Amino acid sequence: MNTITREFSRTFADRNLGFITQERTERKTSRVGFLLLENFSLPCFTQALDVLVTANLISPGAVRVHTFSYNHAEVMSDLGIPIRPDTPLTDIRLSDLDLMVICGGLRAARTVPNWLSGLLKKIAKLPIALGGLWNGAWYLGAAGLLDGYRCAIHAEQRTALAERAPYANVSHDPLVFDRNRMTSATPNGAFDMMIRWLSHGASPQLADAVLDTLDSDQSKHRSFQKPQQPKVSKALREVIALMEANLEEPLCPEQLAQVVGLSIRQIQRLFKDQLNTTPQKYYFQLRITEARRLIQNSNASIFDVSIACGFVSCTHFSRSYSAFFGHPPSKEVRYEI
Question: Fewer CB within 10 Å, N or C, the chain?
Fold first, then answer.
């Protein structure tokens, strides 16, 4: 008996990337270091770190993260929470990095000690990208490493950096990517920066999957949008909202059309033009995706999950699940049991 396999559409592929059984392929691990300065911005650091940790949850081994400090000593954050670095600041450790991010903060010292200036200039000679969080650009600029580059820095030091590094183009943007320099001025900018780096250093698909996992309300909280993300009209959003609110008892095409005041043909055209799929396929993949989430995050039985997501036959649900994910629902990881 042949096994039927199905692929998710673009909309749902990102949401389910980490849960689809795939053949393991050789890939390059992206190695990122964070140099923590005294009074560094903990919100910026955790926003950036959350992206990378989530990437490893979705695709184990995709990223390796190292934290550094001067003399490998514990560093106090701007919120009074100390962080102990996990890696000594040695040449052999540095040479293994793809990106080194300087973590500054509002109360981080403006003076640039010789050890830091020398370290940054040493890194700049290696094939390593340099980044800065909050006012990390200040230290890069003071070391002459932003000459000819655009950069972002917190508004409190924007004018001062323009004076300190006259050959740098100091932007008002919260995030700037310019060749092998990337700088952000806010916690949201730090999040965006790591998403962009992940797309470059790992894969665009993994970056999209992380973004879908962590940022469910992009329109409200985000300044960075996924590349090639389709724009969804108000009418289509209404149809999708109806689908999301009616998983256990899916609405038929006639019911959807009646509620939103459109014809079935008009709804079909909206899905085709904006999401390159059909309403039936979208609804089905929505229900399969929500079933996966429910299995992973509850102790509900497979039968109860199938009913909750609109499958009248548990056998049909199991076959459909296996076709999309490569394993039956009974083999799915349970986080809450």
Answer: N
